[in-house]
Amino acid sequence: MNNVNVIEHPLIQHKISLLRDVTTGSKEFRELVSETAMLICYESLRTLPVKEVDVQTPLGIAKTKVLSGSKLAIVPMLRGGLGMVDGITRLVPAAKVGHIGTFRDPETTNAVDYYCKLPFDTADRDVILADIMLATGVTANKAIQLVKDAGAKSVKFICIIANPEGIAAIEKAHPDVQIYCGAIDEGLNDQHYIVPGLGDAGYRMFGTK
Ligand code: URA
To answer: Is the peptide bond before 90 cis (omega within 30 degrees of 0)?
Structure first.
């Protein structure tokens, strides 16, 4: 699992424990998803390129640094990823936001994409794909392919909980994509939910199946 970065910061681990808790209600769940996404994204952007600039302070010239790399696009995967956008865009307010909707066809086990709206200039941007759970990796791989087809300069995949099957699937199909998560759980049950996981992320966030 060379491309996986598990962010073990105590604040992230604490928030994930609350997210897992079956007694946590939707309002708190949404707040925690946003906060946890922001913290994981913060770590994922540690390697953003910077350049030196001179800034006039009230007392002199400071040699300091500003971001110098490509622009970013945040692409949440429907529905879970929607809850991560607010936290991530607080860190990078200039980022554009796309949306991708996919599902895994239970008959064929292939991913079907039903919605894809990406920034017109995706080819000039580094893309952060966001979903709460990385389960089989089938839909994640489809989304990665869609943003690559749009010309993304690079792709990172951010999730809150991953599992070995999903990680292996991304590493096989897209070895160039770095994965950032807060936890790697045991595996999947026969309905493709992560165990122990946190349940159905969409349901817990929005209260609808
Ligand atoms: N999607 C979810 O909402 N939960 C899982 O455990 C896996 C995928």
So the answer is: no
CB 144 within 8 A of CB 170: yes
Q: Is the CB of 133 under 6 A from ligand 1?
A: yes
Q: How far is the CA of 202 from the centre of ligand 1 (A)?
A: 8
pLDDT score of 152 = 98
pTM of this prediction exceeds 0.70: yes
pLDDT value at residue 209: 84
Residue of minimum CA distance from atom 4 in ligand 1:
200
Q: Are 65 and 53 in contact (CB under 8 A)?
A: yes
Nearest protein Cα to ligand 1, atom 2 = 200
Whole-number average pLDDT of the chain:
97
**pLDDT band for position 116 (cuts 50, 70, 90):** very high
> In terms of Cα–Cα distance, which of 88, 114, 81 is closest to 205?
81
**Residue 93 in 3-state DSSP?**
coil
Residue 70 confidence class, pLDDT cut points 50, 70, 90: confident
Span from the CA of 61 to the centroid of ligand 1 (angstroms): 51
Burial letters 79-102, b for 16+ CB under 10 A, else e: bbbbbbbebbbebbeebbbbbbbb
Ligand 1 pocket check for 137: Cβ under 6 Å: no
Q: Which two tokens stand for residue 83?
A: 């809850």
- 132 by Cβ neighbours in 10 Å (0-12 / 13-18 / 19+) ranks as buried
